[in-house]
Automatic annotation (TrEMBL):
One of its GO terms (molecular function) is hydroxypyruvate isomerase activity. Residues 9-199 form the Xylose isomerase-like TIM barrel domain. Pfam families: AP_endonuc_2 (PF01261). It comes from Halcyon senegalensis. GO terms for biological process: glyoxylate metabolic process. This is HYI isomerase.
Amino acid sequence: GDQEAGEMGLAAVPGRQAAFRQGLAAAVQYAKAVGCPRIHLMAGRVPLGADRAAVAGEMEATFTENLRYAADLLTQEDMTGLVEPINNRITDPRYYLNTPQQAAAILEKVGRPNLKLQLDLFHCQIMDGNLSRNLETYFPLIGHIQIAQVPGRHEPDSPGELNFPYIFKLLESLGYSGYVGCEYAPRGDTVEGLGWLRSYWESQGLQHSGTSKTAE
């Protein structure tokens, strides 16, 4: 969408279907060029001046229509579409898709196997908490995980509410084999800020390359 005009994705924005399809086609070309099999289909914001409850039905219908179109297109490219709930308490008050419960209901209604949930634990904690149960409940729908400490949205070992060693262990026990995206703002230098990862590898008996010492 037009970020300068305040747009943050278009998939659920009524009247912007043509622009959504144009943007999706461009995204597919970029994804093919870099070998990325997943595309985040951003829902977008409640139109400025509109009442969220009043437009909820129309936005859900638009979202459902666009997601089905996207799923059919992405199937041809062997790609997966992702939808991400973004909290509307701190990060984006007007964003349409806010909770994993809302996302799961829409994914069920759309009914396409190549559409998945992109679960950012930062947003999930702010909106709902209950991370262990939410991860277990929605695990079959999850196509990508993102992390950041709450409330500062910095490195996982920064002061905050979330116990990431526990969360990583839970993800392993659930059988998660995908990437974990570091969707945080470093407090300082990016590379120095990755010290948490080196410490985590060491605590798990891994080398910094991520390979097992015993395997070597």
